[in-house]
């Protein structure tokens, strides 16, 4: 591939440079694309792009310690050592007070991504006690590790209503939610659903257990196996169908398996879980993390910033999806697929998860999964630890938030087939809320420019950064930031005539083509 010397990786792009690049693009080998002829693949849920708020954020407690945190745990940390996943190293966590769902900036930024789902779950949800009274206990009852008060759950419901986010959650499944023989009891679930409805809220969908293939980490009883899960899941489905028929049952919600993934102690294969549990799900849910973060892996170099733009790293999304899709096809072939938890890496993300470097993965993942027919993708998290869309202390948008906002503004629910190409990662949808086609073109080369030849004029939105591991991102050469009153900036495109469009190294470009004349979009 020829290199376009007008751009160099890691150098900020100005609007003037964008305007001048189209002439220079003629010197590049260009991929020619006719937007009017892109075939329709299918549709995605209107709430396709969604996010997680961990249950531990709602209650307060110990979550993944940010890399910027000090090495010594505070006294409050020590007092909350019990509120951590089973077998977890307490030094990996840091205490958080409950998230302020009334925060104006948080609500403004979440509402801008609407409509969405907000999934309130995570490993901590498995052992969280819902106190269905106005006087919650000061400490969790036996068998639980945290207390969810009515006031805190009402804060979730009020937030969801304010930002147009439907609630997804999971049930308490640890020892405290079981009888003396170890059978799961529906009392906690019944109280949570009843209270939600009593104050005008709604739970749209629920998983039984967070990540049942990692049951030991999720504080399941000792010796918990596929047969026990199948027994419990059938009881959960019976409860849902009898008491909450309007809520979707999601499952199994397993995490990050592939055909080549090794098993470990406490691991239960998802195929065994599905064979034991039988029918009952309304949508097949799973989780994907491409790797464990530096916090948890214990393997130096398992993931590196140097590999963050590699095809191998980005394709891990497809490998996990293909594994779970094969199980969906075998056990629930007529059900849609939801990715209910995903981020750059498990255990809070790597240090570069909060930078522009991870935005390539974030958007490429959305493009790949929409093309594959996945209906919902819930990023973990909205505003906690290094992989949050927002900084957890200031709610300042990170690069992935700005990418999410552009996706929300431009990419509609009708998915088109843009093909697979060596020159770039290219995805196409009908535009959101308007006629025409929206393209997402990702140049993952750090050194070489490429070009896209379009037969119609477009509005161009190019994301770049002066340094790939920067917390700032530029749109068409201007740094994106909130206004003095937390107003969102105008996300204005650059008018581009029909011609070759240069895509500089290590940049991401959306193109809105109003006059595409694609029958699927008019």
Distance N to C terminus? 35 Å
Number of helices: 13
What is the multimeric organization of the chains shown? single chain
Query: Could you tell me the mean pLDDT?
Result: 91
**Low-confidence region ranges:** 1-12
Helix content: 10-25%
Q: How would you classify the helix and strand content by structural class?
A: alpha/beta
- Tell the overall outline: globular
Proportion of beta-strand residues: 15-25%
- Find the count of extended strands (DSSP E, 2+ residues): 24
Q: Biggest β-sheet, characterized?
A: 9 strands, antiparallel
Model description:
The chain is of the alpha/beta class. It has helices spanning 15-25, 55-59, 75-79, 104-111, 150-163, 187-198, 226-243, 270-277, 294-297, 311-314, 316-331, 359-371, 399-410; strands at 30-33, 40-43, 49-54, 61-64, 93-96, 116-121, 128-131, 146-149, 165-170, 203-207, 248-255, 283-289, 337-343, 376-379, 411-416, 425-431, 437-443, 450-454, 458-464, 474-475, 478-479, 494-496, 500-503, 507-513. The strands form five sheets. Strands 2, 15, 16, 17, 19, 20, 21, 22 and 24 form a nine-stranded antiparallel β-sheet that branches. Helix 6 links the parallel strand 9 and strand 10. Helix 7 (226-243) crosses helix 8 (270-277). The two termini are 35 Å apart. Residues 1-12 have low confidence and may be disordered.
């Amino acid at each position: 591939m020829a290199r376009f010397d007008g751009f160099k990786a890691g150098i900020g792009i100005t609007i003037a440079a964008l305007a001048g690049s189209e002439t220079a693009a003629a010197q590049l080998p260009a991929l020619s694309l006719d937007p009017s002829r892109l075939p329709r693949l299918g549709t995605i849920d209107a709430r396709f792009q969604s996010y997680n708020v961990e249950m531990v954020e709602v209650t307060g407690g110990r979550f993944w310690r940010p890399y910027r945190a000090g090495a010594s745990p505070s006294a409050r940390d020590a007092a909350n050592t019990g509120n951590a996943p089973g077998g977890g190293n307490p030094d990996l966590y840091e205490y958080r007070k409950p998230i302020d769902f009334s925060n104006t900036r948080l609500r403004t930024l979440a509402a801008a991504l609407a409509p969405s789902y907000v999934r309130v779950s995570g490993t901590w949800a498995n052992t969280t006690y819902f106190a269905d009274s106005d006087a919650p206990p000061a400490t969790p009852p036996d068998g639980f590790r945290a207390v969810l008060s009515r006031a805190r759950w009402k804060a979730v419901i009020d937030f969801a209503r304010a930002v147009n986010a439907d609630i997804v959650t999971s049930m308490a499944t640890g020892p405290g939610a079981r009888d003396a023989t170890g059978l799961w009891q529906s009392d906690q679930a019944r109280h949570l659903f009843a209270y939600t409805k009593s104050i005008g809220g709604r739970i749209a969908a629920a998983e039984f257990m967070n990540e049942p293939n990692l049951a030991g980490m999720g504080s399941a009883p000792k010796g918990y196996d596929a047969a026990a899960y199948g027994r419990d899941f059938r009881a959960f489905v019976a409860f849902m169908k009898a008491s909450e028929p309007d809520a979707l049952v999601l499952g199994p919600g397993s995490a990050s398996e592939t055909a080549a993934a090794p098993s470990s102690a406490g691991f239960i294969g998802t195929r065994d879980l599905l064979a034991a549990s039988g029918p009952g799900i309304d949508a097949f849910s799973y989780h994907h993390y491409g790797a464990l973060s530096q916090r948890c892996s214990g393997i130096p170099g398992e993931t590196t910033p140097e590999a963050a733009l590699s095809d191998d790293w980005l394709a891990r999304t497809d490998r996990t999806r293909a594994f779970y899709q094969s199980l969906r096809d075998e056990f629930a072939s007529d059900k849609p697929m939801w990715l209910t938890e995903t981020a750059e890496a498990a255990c809070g993300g790597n240090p570069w998860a909060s930078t522009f470097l991870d935005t390539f993965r974030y958007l490429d993942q959305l493009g790949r999964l929409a093309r594959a027919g996945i209906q919902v993708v819930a990023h973990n998290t909205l505003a906690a630890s290094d992989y949050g869309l927002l900084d957890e202390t200031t709610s300042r948008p990170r690069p992935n938030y700005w990418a999410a906002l552009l996706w929300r503004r431009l990419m509609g629910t009708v998915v088109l087939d843009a093909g697979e190409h060596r020159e770039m990662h290219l995805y196409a949808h009908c535009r959101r809320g308007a006629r025409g086609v929206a393209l997402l073109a990702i140049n993952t080369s750090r050194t070489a420019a490429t070009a896209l030849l379009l037969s119609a004029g477009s509005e161009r939105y190019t994301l770049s950064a002066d340094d790939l591991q920067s917390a700032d991102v530029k749109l068409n050469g201007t740094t994106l930031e909130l206004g003095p009153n937390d107003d969102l900036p105008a996300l204005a495109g650059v008018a581009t005539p029909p011609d070759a469009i240069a895509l500089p190294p290590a940049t991401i470009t959306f193109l809105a083509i109003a006059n595409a004349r694609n029958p699927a979009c008019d």
